[in-house]
Amino acid sequence: MFEKILIANRGEVALRIHRACREMGIATVAVHSTADAHAMHVRLADESVCIGPPSPRESYLNIPAILSAATIAGVDAIHPGYGFLSENAEFASIVEDHGFTFIGPSSEHIAMMGDKLGARARMKSLGLPVVPGSDGPVDDDSALAIAERVGYPLLIKAAAGGGGKGIRRASNSEELIEQVAVARREARAGFGSDTVYFERLLLRPRHIEIQILADGQGGVVYVGERDCSLQRNRQKILEEAPSPALSASEREELGTLACEAIRTIGYKNAGTLEFLYEDGKFYFLEMNTRLQVEHPVTEMISGIDIVREQIRIAAGARLDYEQSDIVLTGHAIECRLNAENPLTFAPSPGRVTEYHPAGGLGVRVDSGLYAGYDVPPYYDSLVAKLIVHGRNRSECLLRLRRALEECVIGGIETTIPLHLRLTNAPDFLNGSYDITWLERFVASAEGQKTP
């Protein structure tokens, strides 16, 4: 097993990885920008190294600085967390070339799944259904003809995109020409490639994802599914497991298909296959070759520490359980608490004057906040994750409301009021929502506030 791991990330995920390492007897090294010098993960780590100024490009995306820190600290391995460099195939390759273990899949698999078109084609060849769309990249000369074949409305998607970015909608040929140009500009600026493809727009689907663990030695399991349909601008707000929309047979069918595909390509470590689900049919979207923000809901219903498993697999261990050993118990919900205005979603960085996380039976809070901490304006606005577990969904919902009422984060605005409103929304309570529902719900709330 590793003796020392560098955590190439910040915030609550860096703290999450630190905790898993400490429970395994592994020392940790935190890297940080000057803006994060007093962050909780820096304060708790065994060692810390400053890697640059606040700008992510000069710190958390600065590969030479991270590798220098790893060399200076004498670590065995590097865990990338999520975001930043976690799905950068070049980073994974460079880490291995410099004699460190990358805690994640191989650079080849990261590159394979990072190419959305390639991943779509590969998974289709392995028997996974995909959303109808273009068979490859779309050039400007053929865009109209391909769009007519795919059918409107459709989505224009960056082939190198991710995280809900690089996506535009077109409802007719006039919009198509304009939106293809916009999508290409955004893709070039965000991902360094202006390659785009088309997908049929499903109007009211749910977003379902399957959590995979694979040891690269033949052992592959799925740890249930997560329902991530509550989204705004294709960014997840709340996730739950299991999905209230799936039956046990649908869960088993999708999980088995996912495992077969993962085993065939020889994937190693944790990964998540994302699907759209509409009218009883699943469509493969993409695969995330990293730890997911919402992994705690899976941990709560399975009892499996996914970060621990990532570290064990990277160290060469086999999975010590089979699919039949995985038993999912109860229901879990995660609320992403962002430093944002709960109606306009405008960022709200600043000093935290009060902090009291919820507690009690079945309640978990993943956060690096503390009273007196300054939330910096340079990074993602996620400051805490509230996760609750109950014997069933009804108990979980009641516990969620109670826990949200207990949470106190003073000095900055947060999305706690939004989540409290959700706990009183009939459609959410009965589980009848889709990926478009939250934006309609927020728009309705905004209308009520308008004089």
What does this structure look like?
This protein has about 450 residues and is α+β, with helices and mostly antiparallel strands. It has 15 helices and 20 strands. The chain is globular, with a radius of gyration of 21 Å. The termini are far apart.
Counting DSSP H or I runs of 4 or more residues, the number of helices is 15
Helix content: 25-40%
- Please give the radius of gyration in angstroms: 21 Å
Compute the average pLDDT.
Answer: 95
First and last CA, distance: 62 Å
Name the shape in a single word. globular
Strand order of the largest sheet: 13-12-9-10-11-14-19-17
The count of DSSP E runs of length 2 or more, i.e. the number of strands, is 20
**Which structural class fits the helix and strand makeup?**
alpha+beta
Short summary:
By secondary structure, this protein is α+β, with helices and mostly antiparallel strands.
Describe how the helices and strands are arranged.
Elements: E1 4-7, H1 11-23, E2 27-33, H2 40-44, E3 47-52, H3 63-73, E4 77-79, H4 89-97, E5 101-102, H5 107-114, H6 116-125, H7 143-150, E6 154-158, E7 167-170, H8 173-191, E8 196-200, E9 206-215, E10 220-232, E11 235-241, H9 248-265, E12 268-278, E13 281-288, H10 295-302, H11 306-314, E14 331-338, E15 350-351, E16 354-356, E17 363-367, E18 374-375, E19 382-390, H12 393-406, E20 408-410, H13 416-422, H14 426-429, H15 437-449
Parallel strand pairs: 1-2, 1-4, 2-3, 4-5
Antiparallel strand pairs: 6-7, 6-8, 9-10, 9-12, 10-11, 11-14, 12-13, 14-19, 15-18, 16-20, 17-19
